[in-house]
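Take one protein record:
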Amino acid sequence: MWLSTPVYVLKRQAKLLARQTDTPLNQALDKVASGQGYQSWSHLAATLKNESPARELLSQLKPGDLCLVGARPSQGKTLLGLELAARASRVGRKSFFFTLDYHERDVADRFASMGIARHAVEHTVVVDTSDDVSADYIIRRLRSEQGPTLVVVDYLQLLDQKRTNPSLNDQLRVLCNYAADTGSNCVVLSQIDRRFDMGSKRMPGKSDIRAPNPIDLSAFGKFVFLHNGKLQFDQAA
């Protein structure tokens, strides 16, 4: 069973409901969970622990994959990327989360919203919030790593915001070559154009990827789109 709304949004809804109705938070959580088709919040949490989009995505990744994950704002793509990194670390893979969008505190808050204490993953998930993040910067950080890694980049449209950085296409080729040469996985989070909200489609696709600058999507071997708690895999371009 998939959620119609990301978990962290449901928690916010429960907190608001608790304040508005002067209801204990645990009861508000249960009511919100019931609205999603679960018996209680604990039932929801236990189910999602075994049936999460991150678990499904991780199972689909093959060595050398460069994967794009696209979603509109507040659909949970950052949480998906962080959970993906955390899950990979639990099976013995070194994971990196590079973000141009969040600070360390933001990342810690999002780990906490998933019930993961930052200190529980800090030795296996490297979080880099440098303003210098680009494909070349990422490769320099990974140069000394032994064995395949899992890399999450947050997010595509910010990689060339500095005029001194290479074009998106050049950076994607660098990341693609790194993944192929090392057998690593590189997952790049991406914005979806706001025109998707005005259409009738239930799930965004490759044509909805926001492209302020031209993007050659052929570098990606996998496309994953997230909307309303559901995950969809598309064929490579």
Q: What stands out?
A: The chain is about 40% helix and 15% strand.
